[in-house]
Amino acid sequence: MFPVTVPRSQLICSEATPYYHIVSRCVRRSYLCGIDEHTQQNYEHRRGWIEDKLKELSAMFCIDICAYAIMNNHYHLVLSIDCDGVKNLSEQEVVGRWCSLHEMTVLIHRYLTKQDRHNSTKAVCQQIISEWRERLASISWFMKILNQTIARLANKEDDCTGHFWEGRFKSQALLDEKALLTAMVYVDLNPIRANMADSLEASDFTSVKERLAALKSKKLTPPCLHPFIGNPTNEMIKGIPFRLDDYLE
Questions:
Q1: Assuming Cys at both sites, which of 38, 68, 137, 183 could form a disulfide with 21, CB separation 3.0 to 4.6 Å?
Q2: Contacts of 101 by beta carbon, 8 Å cutoff, 6+ apart
Q3: Which helix (H) or strand (E) holds 98?
Q4: Which residues face 81 on adjacent strands?
Q5: What is residue 19's predicted lDDT score, i.e. its pLDDT?
Q6: Helices 91-98 and 119-135 meet at what angle, rounded to 10?
Q7: Domain that holds residue 42
Q8: Are residues 188 and 108 part of one domain?
């Protein structure tokens, strides 16, 4: 009996939970980062590609990064969808974010600058912007852009073509605070568990190292990461429902 492929829309539902644990792995488990023991080829710099792209995308999408760890042949993310944030974006903000990575069409430009006042054009443009708004809160689009960018860079460097990633990233819904905490701890401890580091401070290309570096420089949260806010009484405050000190402990 063949396995049934479940549509991504059934695996990711922001109404059920905003939090998801994501894993993406290289095809045939070939090296993404690190040093290939057989060829001695060093791919360490590719971790920086992923980390830089994550930071760029977190500023564009309404998707917050709770935790990440970039390993040799795969990486882990814990993401949070900001449903309220994407709803509150103006049309100009939606276009600005989406077109920071995609070329703006002449039609949208004319609509925003009010050069075309036809009702039919207005309806078409509003529909396009509505689709872009949905994409800005879509983990699937977030992952698509991230993985396509890294695949192009790696294939160009290796002078080859073809698939770089396995067909689909894996996603697991985190339905309560305990599941969120467990997933984040699992991700941040991944390099230590894999004997790639012997301490949190030495765990390169992880969210926990970013947070520790921010603390050392007397900053509460790195710009690209979702903040820890404890148990807020103010519902307007958004963040991870734990204290950072407790999490590190």
A1: 183
A2: 60, 145
A3: helix 91-98
A4: 63
A5: 96
A6: 60
A7: 15-84+139-206
A8: no
Number of domains into which the chain is organized: 2
Neighbours of 249 (CB within 10 A): 6
Both 72 and 177 in one domain: the answer is yes
pTM for the model stands at 0.88
The answer to whether 164 and 155 are in contact (CB under 8 A) is yes
Q: Note whether 200 and 101 are same-domain residues.
A: no
Render pLDDT for 98-151 as a digit per residue (tens, 0 to 9): 999 898 889 998 888 887 777 788 899 999 999 999 999 999 999 999 999 999
Residues 22 and 76 in one domain: yes
Residue 221 lies in a domain: no
Same domain for 77 and 161:
yes
The verdict on 201 and 122 lying in the same domain is no
86 close to 136: Cβ distance less than 8 angstroms: yes
* Strands ordered across the beta sheet of 19-25: 63-70, 74-81, 19-25, 170-173
Mean pLDDT of 78-104: 94
Question: Is the CB of residue 41 less than 8 Å from the CB of residue 31?
Answer: yes
Q: How far apart are CA 154 and CA 46, in angstroms?
A: 8
Three-state SS at 237: coil
Alpha-carbon gap, residue 231 to 243, rounded angstroms: 8
Same domain, 169 and 105: no
* Distance in angstroms (rounded) separating the CA atoms of residues 117 and 51: 42
Indicate whether 211 belongs to any domain. Answer: no
Instruction: Give Cα 98 distance to the centre of its chain.
Output: 15
